[in-house]
Amino acid sequence: MRAERLDQVFVARRGWRVELRLVLEAVTSARTRTTLLAPVADPLEAVRWAARALAREGEVRDVSRLRLRVERGGHLVDDPALAAALVTAFRERAATEEDG
C-alpha cells in the first residue's frame, strides 16, 4: 500500500530518544500505522528528522491536514508548533528531492 497522506503523529520520549507513531492514509482511505525511533532526544529535532525521512522516501505526498500530539504526563496534547515544524521540514526536503 502506498501511503499518500500523513494523518497523525504521536510523539513520546523513550529514554534518551523520541518515539514517533505515525498514522498514514492511502488514497483508498486504508490506514497504516508505523513507529519510528528518532536518533535524537529533542522532540523538535525528532519531528524534523522524521519529516525529512518521509519526504526522502517519496511515498507521503500530503501533510497539510496533519494532527500531531505529544504525550505529556500520560495524556496526549496537541502541539501545533511541532506540527508546523514537521510540515515545514517535509516541504523543504520534498522540494529538494524534486529538484534533484
Q: Can you put this structure into words, describing what you see?
A:
The structure is a single chain. With 100 residues, this protein is α+β, with helices and mostly antiparallel strands. The protein has a single domain, classed as Nucleotidyltransferase, domain 5 (2-Layer Sandwich), CATH 3.30.420. 35% of the residues lie in helices and 37% in strands. It is built from 2 helices and 5 strands. The chain has a 5-stranded mixed β-sheet with strand order 3-2-1-4-5. Helix 1 (43-57) packs parallel to helix 2. The longest helix has 20 residues, at 80-99. The chain is globular. The mean pLDDT is 92.
Please state the average pLDDT score: 92
Runs in which pLDDT lies below 50 for 5 or more consecutive residues are none
Can you tell me the overall shape? globular
Portion of residues in helices?
A: 25-40%
Q: How would you classify the helix and strand content by structural class?
A: alpha+beta
CATH architecture level-2 label: 2-Layer Sandwich
Rg result: 13 Å
Specify the CATH class: Alpha Beta
User: What's the structural domain tally?
Assistant: 1
Question: Could you give the count of β-strands?
Answer: 5
Number of helices: 2
Strand line-up of the largest beta sheet = 3-2-1-4-5
The CATH topology label is: Nucleotidyltransferase, domain 5
